[in-house]
Protein 1
Amino acid sequence: MKTKDLFDKIVSLCKRRGFIFQSSEIYGGLNGCYDYGPLGVELLRNIKEAWWRDLTLREDIEGLDSSILMHPRVWEASGHVENFTDPMVDCKECKARFKADSLEDSECGNKAYKGRKAIKCFQEGKFTEARNFNLMFKTFIGPVEDSSSVVYLRPETAQGIYVNFTNVKDSMRQKIPFGIAQIGKAFRNEINTKNFLFRTREFEQMEMQYFINPAEDEKWFEYWKEQRFNWYLKYGMRKDKMRITVHEKLAHYAKSAIDIEYEFPFGWGEIEGIHNRTDFDLRRHFEFSGKKLEYFDEATKERYIPYVIETSAGASRGLMAFLMDAYYEEEVNNELRVVLKFHPAIAPIKAAVFPLVNRDNMPEVARNIIEDLKKHIRVFYDDSGAIGRRYRRQDECGTPYCITVDSDTLKDGTITIRERDSMLQERVNKDNLLNILKEKISF
Ligand code: GAP
């Protein structure tokens, strides 16, 4: 299948099954912003929950939820006011604005020239000189809109962690090495939003900053690189669709950096970055705030500004990778079966329950099963249409288990559990169902 077709099919499934909707769709949509529908929000929460559990259920990492709006000096200290820019050019003819360094990938904004590459317009001298455009969204705090009230929507969650370094260290009596983890929204006024959730203007990050002794930076960089790559494998991502690339062009704060990349239908793209940020951020906040952000090692009597190894994952971009990775089309009995093979831990719905027919007390038994399960896991009841169609609908939602109540249930209390990927069914006693599912889903 052509990769564009595959991409379009997945985007269409996302809307049809309630994963992702265009933001403000009834008004024509808002570019670069998306809404998570009933299944999308469950998938997103499950991914964030898996990350949070794996990163914070350890003694050396603490959680944090810092505010999105921060003191404007934070962004001067971090270098974002000065450096978080993209060079841009405007077309004098069609008035469209492009990133100067990706004209090859952009199309001319003039509808009359549909499909024409922007690079051609550039070669014909239609563009202005490149100017730097800051990617931070600006707004004002309080009623007066002047330069003294400017604040920014954070472009990364990391800075909220750095400015709380001492608060967390002291309140939790943490010793280096230790980390601070945070999940939250970030905003970037991207010039070219593209590829669905890949580059949006509002997105979520799952970031962890690990504070270390500078002498150990290489060891911890390697450690986190491996941990984070394996995290995606743990939740079912295909290894042959992942790779690590080393940055040659480094961000203003980094000594070394790698990307964990996923092969999307449109090509390879970063889903997470691991960065050795050195003491850049803590040192700069020390300089700008006058507050010492350093560490005293009681054992060695050493005093230093810690280095930071950062793991920075996109929750929304990761969601798209998990979604695309899970998508399969298979032929079953000469019919096409579309199935999302999510790992049970991140699947939005864990089990669906069907009465085989809508009579003979089967709906009542199925409803009782739902009542029992829903206290523990997200379940779905469906009694409409042929059983095969109900299975197919759940396959498209990525539901790992379907439970059917049939005439044998009424006789001997057994039900069938159908496993999504193998489509095999086993018959078990309904009283054991919750324990069996718990074991399969392992939550
Ligand atoms: N704190 C470091 C930092 O923000 P980054 O490489 O700019 O580093 C980290 O971003 C992750 O955030 C990326 O790997 C990606 O998953 C996600 N991300 C960045 N910009 C994004 C955007 N415009 N839309 C969606 N996700 C984005």
Note: The mean pLDDT is 94.
Protein 2
Amino acid sequence: MKGKKLIDPSDLTTTEIEDLIKLANQIIQNEEKYSKCCENKLLATLFYEPSTRTRFSFEAAMLRLGGKVIGFSEPNSSSVAKGESISDTIQTVCCYADIIAMRHPKEGSAYVAANASTVSFINAGDGGHFHPTQTLTDLLTISNLKGRLDNLVIGLCGDLKFGRTVHSLIKAMSRYQNITFIFISPEELQVPDYIKKEVLEKNKLKYDESTNLEEVISKLDILYMTRVQKERFFNESDYIRLKDMFILDLEKLKNAKKDLTILHPLPRVNEISTEIDDDPRAAYFKQAKFGMYIRMALILKFLGIEVD
Ligand code: CP
């Protein structure tokens, strides 16, 4: 995987994903062993859009591997404010850094950046398009908490139209055996047609759609909640109308399986009541921690660093 560029989860084969999950688990078992692996290596984090988990977990990952980090979380503090293009910024950063992680609000920006990059490049989220390292986080979480990545009924709930984490997860899970999706959303925020045609129907995957979480919750092995994203709406009144349509609380969990796993890429707003946080089925903060370990594995693999 040395020198690889990651734009879309399908840039990684299932074998490469298995290798990343295996390495992340080895790091979890013995973090100390990996603490100096990236001495003299530099990660650049270029965040044109706000982030807590993705940026901090990338930076924590590199620092815990003994490497260093440069970058910006506010593009106007760089020459982006003077009108510098993504391509010129990336070509410049390649002069200084060994690996780049970039988040940008525009779909397709990751392709432009990856093409300009002469070092390993990782898409840390491009608009409503893809968020492959969140998907790797989700796969590591599911693999560790459920013990498998196949034979699962996965409910995805909330904004399934603009949610890049949802699009990436559907694509990734579609490669495993006997996966059934149940999409729970308002009609306006349903999974886009191109995902249905090009991913679900092409791969003959089973899926169902619902506007009622309570009606389907008992069928689920995994419930993946998502936020209705204010920043993706053009019209504030539509956002206000749709934002609180799905709020998971203890009442709604009554009919859920005892071993349901509740995930959320976070940040949450109202869609999971805080009363759920103490339920053993709530796994979203564990998920955020797994995010750091899978990014440690990704950095090591993309830099070609082997540890005996
Ligand atoms: N899950 C996720 O991408 O969170 P941030 O936006 O905080 O990075």
Note: The chain has two domains: 5-131+291-303, 133-288.
